[in-house]
Amino acid sequence: MEYFVEKGLGYQEVMQSIYHKYGESAKVMHHRNIRIPGFLGLFSRDGVEVTGYLSKEPLRRRIDIDEEKRKILSAVGERSDKAAAEKGRDKGSDKGGDSKALQTILDEVKSLKEQLGNRPADTAPAEHPAIDQIENLLLENDFSPRYIRSMIERITRTFSMEDLKDQTAVEQQVLTWIGEGVDIYPRQRMSKPEVFILVGPTGVGKTTTIAKLAAMYGLGRGAQQRGPAKVRILTIDNYRIGARQQMETYGDIMGIPVNSVENKDEMKKYLTMYQDADIIFVDTIGKSPRDFERLGKMRALLDGCGASSSVHLGMSATTKTSDMHEILRQFEPFGYKSVVLTKLDETTRVGNIISVLHEARKQLSFVTYGQKVPQDIERASIPFLLKHVNGFTADRGEVYRHFSEDEKSTGEGELHG
């Protein structure tokens, strides 16, 4: 596969340059903001760098005329073979056998022609300016090729040629479909204390996220809480330099007790000690998803948290799409209930995140987007995620209201009564 990197002063300028050079075969993977140096390194300016690849196969689903041709050719071959076999068995009936075979082929060709002719005249073709626009928008937002293919196929099945004239309506429907594909983790009532365990690879910001969650619930911001919850924090991250001190500092500022846990027995001891708490957050060791031995040991320690615990997977929004799939798979043995998305402020595209979670059928619970505790965290919601899908010019108000009402009706966000 051939890749390209293009730089310029603005995103639209770079995209025009890419399509001028490579045409429709250019597929954008991601872009980032850069500084473009001026003369002798002076007077540098803000710019954009776009990375992508040249596709040999179009993503759009085309009306499969070739398949019909293959059927005809296959029928011709089969009938010819049959006629030849009959001819070999009975040379006296050559003319009659050939005539029968030819008539059968003509009948099948006529039938296929009728089937093609009966195709609805207003069925949307896969190649259409409105569909091209949607495909480009999805590419610019970093949706995966598989996700884009399924979306284009859905458009061609749903919209007629007449419907495609209303670009705004098409965009609004696509945004709705994107939202419907996002699965939000429902915060259900649980027996007290609830034990919230956050696992994940190194560098995704688990410790800071635990502090934000603890502050959120400790201040009564845990979505539909009736007041501040009684919060406790346990940490098993005793190996990373400064990790324990960092969490204890957060605890001191928020007035929340923090205890360090070394083994399964200590875990049970502190859980018994904090039976009067509403929620206990457990910060874990950051491990590579390939470090199977240490992951196994951590899994055994977390078994001490009991049946009231729920495991959640922290994953950075800046992670490559292929690595996201790998992380989801490698942490599967922990039985995590949802994904907590971190570092959303470090990327401008969420298409890959939506694609990966949709394809893996995983739920999203919280989103963080900065270092401030407790401000830079939100309860995951479909409208919040759709606001980060860029480029759609349709009026999003109705789409947002639709999903906001859905979330209210399901009572999501409740922690305790």
Automatic annotation (TrEMBL):
Domain SRP54-type proteins GTP-binding residues, every copy: 193-391
GO molecular function: GTP binding; GTPase activity; signal recognition particle binding
Pfam families assigned to the protein according to its UniProt record, in alphabetical order: SRP54 (PF00448)
Residues of the AAA+ ATPase domain: 192-370
Keywords, in A-Z order: Bacterial flagellum biogenesis, Bacterial flagellum protein export, Cell membrane, Cell projection, Cilium, Flagellum, GTP-binding, Membrane, Nucleotide-binding, Protein transport, Transport
Localization per record: Cell membrane
Main location: membrane
CDD domains tied to this protein: FlhF
Biological processes, Gene Ontology terms: bacterial-type flagellum organization; protein transport; SRP-dependent cotranslational protein targeting to membrane
Ranges where the record places region Disordered: 78-100
Membrane topology, record value: Peripheral membrane protein
Record-level GO cellular component terms: plasma membrane
UniProt cross-references to InterPro entries, sorted A to Z: AAA+_ATPase, FlhF, FlhF__GTPase_dom, P-loop_NTPase, SRP54_GTPase_dom
Compositional bias annotation for Basic and acidic residues: 78-98
Family of this protein: Belongs to the GTP-binding SRP family.
Described purpose of this protein according to its UniProt entry: Necessary for flagellar biosynthesis. May be involved in translocation of the flagellum.
Name of this protein: Flagellar biosynthesis protein FlhF
Species for this entry: Spirochaeta africana (strain ATCC 700263 / DSM 8902 / Z-7692)
Lineage: Bacteria, Pseudomonadati, Spirochaetota, Spirochaetia, Spirochaetales
